[in-house]
Design a protein that fits this description.
This protein is of the alpha/beta class. Helices cover 34% and strands 14% of the residues. It has one domain: Alpha-Beta Barrel (TIM Barrel). It is built from twelve helices and 13 strands. The radius of gyration is 21 Å and the shape is globular. The structure holds flavin mononucleotide.
């Protein structure tokens, strides 16, 4: 039997992902002062035990005012490197590539956790604070929490570009194999791209080339600070959800990113307005896969598909159809951190539990002898 594509390696520059299963970045609101702690190690470590080929941290801010919430991780200070190093060591020891996402949330910074009630702001008694947010223009994201941002001066933008590069240098020092810029979901880079949020009349606004100038400068700074041998991704919102930025714009942007040395486009959508990510883009199973396909074909660059991909056969079809090269799993990984090894069983390619760590797999394989025949045939107790 031919191995499913989902479980074939993927080479990017000097690193090889052992398979195409990726944990999508997911913020946990558990950091203090942006520092990694035991929670992050256990939360992300279990995905490596589940045999995800690439494990992404949540978005890590490049400066404190760029955090989405006060509980986000950071890569804005050298003191944060050691905690990240502990994470990368464990993920790599278990066979995964360690990946991190760096971000500036711009006007969507200083937010509460998404599950906080309207009258609450962050964990009670934890001294949750708000701070002045910034953006391309003095226009709010328009949800119940968003404050009016201060429009950035060109000199401050140079400073943020430099901070993206500095965060990349720290990510490398911490041992990450892959870096991704979070350029989607209405955060700072996406705010510059969309004419709905960027009303500047200097060289960073106006037509598409002007609006792309700042995001491309940030991407260039990261590429220059990030080793040649390591791959760089960028997450984009293929459409902003408000009609200001569309798939054609994303393809043109991806062509520019490719020329800068970006290796993979992680194709999400929406989020320019409101606190949520993909809103107001209509959701259904695999709803963002067509964006990954359009960018892959239009810009001839590898893509990562994400969004309501639930099981092995669905993920395998995306790869077989040539719509994407990598599959990012978000909430389904929260539901089942062992998603890859279960997907392998669904696809019939690991009934002897050979993909699992032997400390688990040897026992589970032996247990098959004690199961009723119909269950033993798949190795799964159901
Ligand atoms: C708890 C949670 C936190 C998230 N945090 C981030 C984040 O830090 N960066 C990001 O780019 N997307 C973030 N997302 C979006 C996911 O990476 C993913 O794109 C989205 O959940 C859709 O994929 P899914 O249907 O597989 O969950 C988050 C999603 C969830 C559920």
């Amino acid at each position: 039997m031919q191995k499913p594509k989902l479980f074939t390696p993927f080479k990017m520059r000097g690193v090889v992902a052992p398979n195409r299963c990726v944990v999508s970045p997911m913020v946990q609101y558990r950091a203090r002062d942006g520092q990694v702690n035991d929670y992050h190690l256990v939360h992300l470590g279990k995905f490596a035990l589940g045999k995800f080929g690439i494990v992404f941290t949540e978005n890590c801010a490049v400066e404190p005012r760029g955090r989405v919430t006060q509980g986000d991780l950071g890569l804005w200070d050298d003191s944060q490197i050691e905690g990240h190093r502990r994470l990368t060591r464990f993920l790599q020891q278990e066979g995964a590539l360690a990946a991190t996402q760096i971000t500036h949330a711009g006007r969507k910074a200083s937010s509460p956790r998404q599950f906080d009630k309207p009258d609450e702001f962050g964990p009670k008694g934890a001294g949750w604070q708000r701070w002045q947010v910034v953006g391309p223009s003095a226009l709010s994201a328009g949800d119940r929490y968003s404050e009016l941002p201060v429009a950035l001066e060109a000199s401050e933008m140079d400073d943020i570009v430099r901070k993206f590069g500095e965060a990349a240098r720290r990510a490398d020092a911490a041992g990450y194999d892959v870096i991704e810029i979070h350029g989607a979901h209405g955060y700072l880079l996406a705010q510059f791209l969309s004419p709905l949020s960027n009303k500047r009349n200097d060289k960073f606004g106006g037509d598409r080339a002007g609006r792309m100038r700042f995001p491309l400068a940030a991407a260039r700074a990261v590429r220059e600070a990030w080793p040649e041998s390591k791959p760089m991704f960028i997450r984009v919102s293929a459409v902003d959800g408000g009609g200001g930025w569309d798939v054609d714009d994303t393809v043109a942007y991806a062509q520019e990113l490719k020329a800068l040395g970006i290796d993979v486009i992680d194709t999400s959508s929406g989020g320019l307005t409101g606190v949520s990510t993909a809103l107001p883009v209509k959701r259904s199973l695999g709803f963002q896969v067509p964006f990954a396909a359009a960018v892959k074909r239009g810009a001839d660059i590898p893509t990562m598909a994400v969004g309501l991909i639930l099981d092995g056969p669905q993920a395998e079809k995306v790869l077989q159809d040539g719509d994407a090269d990598l599959i990012a799993i978000g909430r389904q990984a929260l539901y089942n951190p062992f998603w890859p090894v279960h997907a392998a069983q669904e696809l019939g390619c690991d009934i002897d539990f050979g993909m699992w760590n032997p400390e688990y797999g040897w026992w589970l394989d032996k247990r098959k002898n004690n199961l009723p025949a119909d269950r033993a045939a798949t190795g799964q107790p159901k």
